[in-house]
Write a structure and sequence with these properties.
The protein is α/β, with parallel strands linked by helices. It contains 8 helices and 25 strands. Helix 1 runs parallel beside helix 3 and helix 1 runs parallel beside helix 7.
């Protein structure tokens, strides 16, 4: 039985940052994740994708963000159960939770924080013939290593942030990039839309709207696409086709834990601490929902911070936590390298 103060289900950015905030309160954390490494989607699906909305980082690759978070929490020595999925939870008579994984590993904690992101997921696939045949033969749904597209002819389909961001990024390394969207309007960030339009105006990418891919061609690997625009159909040669239509998320076994669910997300109380309808179980990051929810890593960091404050009160109801800033601790060069230095900062527990 693995025992800890806060059991975090999900080792993505939000779950990792929760370890930092808990560590400043001298609370131990253990993380469970179905993936074989920490980082969630940032590590598994798009480690080389640039992220633009992390404070103090005008641009940071998703994989680098994960590495920085791991370095930041290293002094607090979190435990990990990786490559296993949390499948069941039960509450003991002494107000503890026991979470069991699909491999039988049991964990005990007074607080459980669900930071499972979108949960388990699979890409939304376009309804095209021979789709399965071309998968991994020129047809990819997820970009893990952008370098395989170097000097290649790339066609991206989609109208959201992922399609826009990868169009901007791959333009720098591919021999040609074409973005196809079935509408003239995009759903992504305005800044990204403007950058794509600028690249199109400069002749650095091709933008075809409104249009859609209706066929895949090739003998052993993908060689061209059939594109329909208005009533016209033409062939477009390419080396890779990347349809980015989003992911279909599923909560998996967590959906059967008695939590209040709304549109495949866990409802929480955002007026205080992001606690679920079960006292002692919290949900932070993309996995939760509440009025005004924004699925941003930044918001997950904020939610993790307030969750840890509430968790401290639950674990130590008779202790008082006095919030202090790092700048008043007298510790210089705070970079997460010294366990003792970190533990002496920010909060003093009385």
């Amino acid at each position: 039985m693995i025992k800890t103060d806060i059991l975090i289900i999900g080792a993505g950015p939000t779950g990792l940052f929760a370890v930092f905030e808990a560590g400043l309160l001298k609370l131990k954390c253990h993380l469970i994740d179905s993936l074989p490494m920490p980082g969630g989607q940032c590590a598994e699906i798009y480690p080389k994708k640039p992220i633009y909305d992390i404070p103090s980082h005008p641009e940071i690759l998703a994989g680098d963000l994960v590495k920085n978070l791991e370095q930041q929490i290293a002094p607090f020595q979190p435990g990990y159960t990786l490559g296993e999925s949390a499948v069941s939870i039960e509450k003991t008579e002494d107000d503890q939770f026991i979470v069991t994984t699909d491999k039988g590993t049991q964990h005990q904690a007074p607080v459980v924080a669900i930071a499972g992101g979108l949960g388990t997921f699979e890409p939304r696939k376009p309804p095209l013939e021979r789709l399965d045949f071309f998968e991994n033969k020129g047809l990819n749904y997820i970009i893990k290593d952008p370098d395989i597209y170097r000097d290649k002819r790339i066609v991206i389909a989609g109208g959201g942030d992922s399609a826009l961001d990868w169009t901007i990024f791959l333009e720098k390394i591919a021999s040609s990039v074409t973005l196809i969207h079935r509408r003239n309007e995009f759903r992504g960030a305005l800044d990204s839309v403007e950058k794509v339009q600028q690249l199109k105006n400069e002749g650095k990418i091709k933008l075809i709207t409104p249009a859609e891919v209706i066929g895949l061609e090739g003998e052993t690997t993908l060689s061209s696409l059939s594109i329909k625009r208005e009533e016209n159909i033409h062939q477009l040669e390419c080396d890779y086709f990347i349809p980015l239509f989003g992911l279909t998320p599923k909560l998996g076994p967590i959906a059967k834990w008695g939590l209040e669910i709304e549109k495949n997300a866990i409802k929480v109380d955002n007026t205080l601490d992001y606690q679920t309808n079960i006292t002692g179980i919290y949900a932070i990051g993309d996995v939760n929902t509440y009025p005004g929810k924004l699925k941003l890593i930044l918001c997950g960091f904020h939610e993790a911070t307030l969750m840890c404050q509430s968790a401290f009160k639950r674990i130590f109801p008779d202790k008082r936590n006095v919030l202090k800033y790092t700048t008043v601790s007298g510790v210089s060069g705070f970079d997460g390298s010294s366990k003792q230095a970190v533990k002496s900062t920010i909060k003093k527990i009385q």
